[in-house]
């Protein structure tokens, strides 16, 4: 017993005498996000990106049935891309940068109401609904989507995150003559192939993703590595505030 007690006491004394520099500092807690009481886009400070970049293509997939839920998502009453003003202005600059190359952004989603996020979570819990499996999660079991692919809280609700791709136009400003660049995976494909740096895509597809990455990075947007289409403007204007006003 004594042979082990003396080293233990010595260790305890050394630990007590350690300076604060030697003591590990806990990582700071992530700030809590609160839902704003705003009831309109104007009150929330959300602006329509189309007012800043009229030629941007706005699809807003969740305002229709062409999305992984197979239905219009609650909170989307119009096909409008709403963002907080700093993010909207930065996105308009990206569009201007691409315009000179006969390219254009195509928007899949922008600000997302909190109620829409709740609808996504509810859909993920309904495992019997497999209508969109072949298109959106062919190689992944629906029971595994919540967490890795569908978040219970979303940065989109803070008004500075956008999902988008690029289209190339044969004639500038004529949307009918524009085709999407091949990114190797469609928007909202729940699959490792959608990871920005996926090894499963071709060199041409990788080059298209890099084109989007470079264009967005130049104007302050940071990519989410699991989704080639997902970008957040940094620094976020309201990092601790989410919004639940409808898109209309």
UniProtKB/TrEMBL annotation:
The record marks 112 as: Transition state stabilizer. Zn(2+) binds at residues 156, 163, 230. Pfam families: Peptidase_M15. SUPFAM superfamilies: Hedgehog/DD-peptidase. Coiled coil: none annotated. Its cofactor is Zn(2+). The active site is at 227 (proton donor/acceptor). Keywords: Cell wall biogenesis/degradation, Dipeptidase, Hydrolase, Metal-binding, Metalloprotease, Protease, Signal, Zinc. It comes from the Bacteria. Residues 1-17 form the signal peptide. Its EC number is 3.4.13.22. The keyword Disulfide bond does not apply. Transmembrane segments: none annotated. GO terms for molecular function: D-Ala-D-Ala dipeptidase activity; metallopeptidase activity; zinc ion binding. It catalyses: D-alanyl-D-alanine + H2O = 2 D-alanine. Catalyzes hydrolysis of the D-alanyl-D-alanine dipeptide. HAMAP family: A_A_dipeptidase (MF_01924). This is D-alanyl-D-alanine dipeptidase. It comes from Pseudoluteimonas lycopersici. The lineage of its organism: Bacteria, Pseudomonadati, Pseudomonadota, Gammaproteobacteria, Lysobacterales.
């Amino acid at each position: 017993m004594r042979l082990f007690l003396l080293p233990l006491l010595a260790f305890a004394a050394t630990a007590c005498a350690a300076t604060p520099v030697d003591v590990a500092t806990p990582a700071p807690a992530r700030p809590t996000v609160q839902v704003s009481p705003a009831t309109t886009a104007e009150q929330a400070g959300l602006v329509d990106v189309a007012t800043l970049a009229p030629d941007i293509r706005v699809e807003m997939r969740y305002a229709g049935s062409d999305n992984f839920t197979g239905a219009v998502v609650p909170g989307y009453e119009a096909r409008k891309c709403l963002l907080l003003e700093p993010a909207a202005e930065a996105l308009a600059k990206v569009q201007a940068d691409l315009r000179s190359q006969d390219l254009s952004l195509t928007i899949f989603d922008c600000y997302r109401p909190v109620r829409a996020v709740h609808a996504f979570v509810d859909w993920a819990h309904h495992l019997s609904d497999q209508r969109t499996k072949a298109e959106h999660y062919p190689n992944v079991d629906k029971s595994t989507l919540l967490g890795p692919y569908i978040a219970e809280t979303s940065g989109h609700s803070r008004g500075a995150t956008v999902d988008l791709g690029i289209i190339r136009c044969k004639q500038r400003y004529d949307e009918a003559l524009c085709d999407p660049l091949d990114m190797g995976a469609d928007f909202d494909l729940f699959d490792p192939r959608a990871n920005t740096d996926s090894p499963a895509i071709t060199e041409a597809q990788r080059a298209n993703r890099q084109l989007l990455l470079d264009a967005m990075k130049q104007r302050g947007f940071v990519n989410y590595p699991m989704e080639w289409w997902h970008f957040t403007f940094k620094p976020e204007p309201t990092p601790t505030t989410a919004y639940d006003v409808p898109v209309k």
